[in-house]
């Protein structure tokens, strides 16, 4: 089943709020070899002007993932997860994610294109904090491979 | 930590260089931290069954550590205002010897008005580039 072209422009409902935990930030930081004390030590983070430890730049993928799961679960999407390859990824930040943030993400399908047997879906997830202020926009290009 | 001096940068300067040895342990650790438990990142049988040469590192893991030398150079992860990559080639992580990913971070462009430096990353395993168009925009104002 090909990807449904009518997905283009669709906006999914906002995700359940995600509370960023300090230990989760540290766990993620260690997993991506982040050694900056601002990522790990609340005192160092406060000295740099943050309320708590700062997440590494790619941490927002954890929140974006919740929106991508929504997209794959859309009954009419036609996206076969086993055929999905991550093509590219981008994050545009207003500020970094900090432990204690309560984040909500809203996905918009920016585009659906066909390239030969493949479909290319661009998903843009806008992530805001508890006040509704923009934190980061995560943009994923998903390549859905056609039948071999 | 003070930001690097924007005025002293020139296009082409190498600002950071680092190699990251990956093992299967690294992949399991990232799976747990990120919540991405796709078995192609830790099971040889599953990887082979779907036609892959072996267990692969998560693309997002490679993207995640490739930016860290730039974060260390910038002094504060909050100075990163934009980061993008293209996943051009998978990183195969051998069960015994793992894989080594090298990162070179070079000034690609300087925006004088915004005091933003675009740092371009060269990310390779051996001679093969694994991330394309890997660019980090760092605010140094």
TrEMBL record, chain A:
Task: Enumerate the InterPro entries for this protein.
Answer: FAS1-like_DH_region, HadA-like, HotDog_dom_sf, UPF0336/Enoyl-CoA_hydratase
Enumerate the Gene3D superfamilies for this protein.
Answer: Hotdog Thioesterase (3.10.129.10)
Q: Which GO terms describe its biological process?
A: fatty acid biosynthetic process
Q: Taking every annotated instance into account, which residue ranges of this chain make up the domain FAS1-like dehydratase?
A: 15-137
Pfam families associated with the record: FAS1_DH_region
GO molecular function list: (3R)-hydroxyacyl-[acyl-carrier-protein] dehydratase activity
Q: Which PANTHER family match?
A: HYDROXYACYL-THIOESTER DEHYDRATASE TYPE 2, MITOCHONDRIAL (PTHR43437:SF3), HYDROXYACYL-THIOESTER DEHYDRATASE TYPE 2, MITOCHONDRIAL-RELATED (PTHR43437)
Q: Which family does the entry's similarity section mention?
A: Belongs to the UPF0336 family.
Know the name of this protein?
UPF0336 protein DCE93_01910
Q: What is the organism of origin for this protein? A: Agromyces badenianii
The upper taxonomy is: Bacteria, Bacillati, Actinomycetota, Actinomycetes, Micrococcales
TrEMBL record, chain B:
- The species this protein belongs to is Agromyces badenianii
Which residues are listed as membrane-spanning? none
What domain of life is recorded for the organism? Bacteria
Protein name, per record:
Acyl dehydratase
Q: Which PANTHER family match?
A: (3R)-HYDROXYACYL-ACP DEHYDRATASE SUBUNIT HADB (PTHR43841:SF3), 3-HYDROXYACYL-THIOESTER DEHYDRATASE HTDX-RELATED (PTHR43841)
Q: Which InterPro entries does its entry note? A: HotDog_dom_sf, MaoC-like_dom
The UniProt similarity line reads: Belongs to the enoyl-CoA hydratase/isomerase family.
């Amino acid at each position: 089943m090909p990807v449904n072209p009518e997905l283009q422009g669709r906006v999914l409902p906002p995700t359940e709020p995600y509370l960023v935990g300090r230990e989760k930030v540290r766990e993620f930081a260690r997993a991506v070899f982040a050694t900056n004390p601002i990522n790990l030590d609340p005192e160092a983070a406060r000295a740099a002007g943050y309320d708590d430890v700062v997440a590494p730049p790619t941490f927002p993928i954890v929140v974006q993932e919740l929106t991508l799961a929504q997209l794959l679960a859309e009954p009419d999407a036609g996206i076969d997860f086993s055929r999905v390859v991550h093509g590219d990824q981008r994050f545009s930040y207003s500020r970094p994610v900090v432990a204690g943030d309560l984040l909500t993400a809203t996905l918009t399908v920016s585009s659906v294109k066909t390239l030969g047997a493949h479909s290319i879906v661009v998903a843009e997830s806008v992530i805001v904090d508890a006040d509704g202020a923009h934190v980061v926009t995560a943009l994923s290009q998903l390549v859905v491979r056609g039948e071999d | 930590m003070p930001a690097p001096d924007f005025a002293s940068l020139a296009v082409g300067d190498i600002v950071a260089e680092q190699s990251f040895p990956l093992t299967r342990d690294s992949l399991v650790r990232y799976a747990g931290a990120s919540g991405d438990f796709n078995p192609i990142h830790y099971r040889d049988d599953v990887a082979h069954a779907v036609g892959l040469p072996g267990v692969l590192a998560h693309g997002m893991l490679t993207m995640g550590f490739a930016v860290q030398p730039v974060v260390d150079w910038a002094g504060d992860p909050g100075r990163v205002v934009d980061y993008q990559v293209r996943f051009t080639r998978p990183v195969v992580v051998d069960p015994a010897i793992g894989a080594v990913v090298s990162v070179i971070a070079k000034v690609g462009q300087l925006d004088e008005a915004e005091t933003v430096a675009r740092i371009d990353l060269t990310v390779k395993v051996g001679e093969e580039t694994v991330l394309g168009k890997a660019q980090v925009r760092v605010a140094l104002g």
